[in-house]
Amino acid sequence: MVEIKSVGVVGGGQMGSGIAQLAAVNGLDVWLHDSDSAALNKALKSISNNIQRLISKGKLNKEKGDDSLRRLRCASSLEDFHSVDIVIEAIVESEDVKKKLFAHLDKTVKGSAILASNTSSISITRLASATIRSSQVIGMHFMNPPPIMKLVEIVRGADTSDDTFNTTKCLAERFGKTIICSQDFSGFIVNRILMPMINEAFHALYTGVATMEDIDTGMKLGTNHPMGPLELADFIGLDVCLSIMKVLHAGLGDSKYAPCPLLVQYVDAGRLGRKRGIGVYNYS
Ligand code: NAD
């Protein structure tokens, strides 16, 4: 088992920036890449603000915080990842785009490096098939926001080796996370259960069962969830929710997973949730 000392994170959106922060605070050298330079700058700013906030609240010692920021570097291209021990991919939830990235990474990173995906739902076995290192490909599914949420869902593809699994598990534990292991089926454990609930909340709104506020209040106070399903969908990103429902629908072959037309319409309208200032709710 290799000791992980450096990580390349691809995708600097809500998940990638959180994963990069977590890795830097836990002593790893981090390279962060995003194909959109504005997203990359935004990620670096948000990580720096979060670390300063942790320092000012006394939750992180200043020396450790400053050291974390020094170890976090921007990668202008994937070629900067040539010496990292593991890559954690957190780009758009699209099998085609992720496969292209994995094929590229396979040619770019050193032979011993692990390629991990933060995918919410896509088959790890199929992502691994884009590489010639399928034994070193694994699902490492963080929850949102990664620095705070305690869980990492680990998903082994058909060829993932014990060594890759053990190294990834150790890394997640070093980040202070509790691990669950899922077989490689669409949506794994968490989203197999969560997304149909969110989709059903959209159906309830779509068919006029109740207002969005009452649906959310019902689930918060009625089932003790910290956020209502529609509020949570806005937090996750409606585009991400829709992509996951499509993967569940295609992968599990049951019409019960068909995305609600209202969810589709909101995404078509660019109402992607908090990150766009409007989703089910308006945040402006
Ligand atoms: P996001 O839209 O916030 O960020 C995605 C980032 O990836 C963007 O900055 C985009 O510019 C970048 N990107 C897209 N294609 C790229 C490419 N080819 N190369 C480099 N960068 C690229 O999305 P997110 O919410 O951070 O989700 C990212 C991944 O994490 C998805 O696979 C998603 O399913 C998964 N995930 C999301 C959540 C959530 O709550 N949002 C939770 C767990 C896992």
TrEMBL record:
PROSITE patterns: 3HCDH. It catalyses: a 4-saturated-(3S)-3-hydroxyacyl-CoA = a (3E)-enoyl-CoA + H2O; a (3S)-3-hydroxyacyl-CoA = a (2E)-enoyl-CoA + H2O. The keyword Zinc does not apply. The keyword Oxidoreductase applies. One of its GO terms (molecular function) is oxidoreductase activity. InterPro entries: 3-OHacyl-CoA_DH (IPR022694), 3-OHacyl-CoA_DH_CS (IPR006180), 3-OHacyl-CoA_DH_NAD-bd (IPR006176), 3HC_DH_C (IPR006108), 6-PGluconate_DH-like_C_sf (IPR008927), 6PGD_dom2 (IPR013328), NAD(P)-bd_dom_sf (IPR036291). Pathway: Lipid metabolism; fatty acid beta-oxidation. NAD(+) binds at G11, G12, G13, Q14, M15, G16, D34, E93, K98, S120, N144, K275. The record marks H141 as: Important for catalytic activity. Residues 7-184 form the 3-hydroxyacyl-CoA dehydrogenase NAD binding domain. Keywords: NAD, Oxidoreductase. Pfam families: 3HCDH (PF00725), 3HCDH_N (PF02737). Gene3D superfamilies: N-(1-d-carboxylethyl)-l-norvaline Dehydrogenase, domain 2 (1.10.1040.10), NAD(P)-binding Rossmann-like Domain (3.40.50.720). GO terms for biological process: monocarboxylic acid metabolic process. Residues 187-283 form the 3-hydroxyacyl-CoA dehydrogenase C-terminal domain. Belongs to the 3-hydroxyacyl-CoA dehydrogenase family. In the central section; belongs to the 3-hydroxyacyl-CoA dehydrogenase family. This is 3-hydroxyacyl-CoA dehydrogenase family protein.
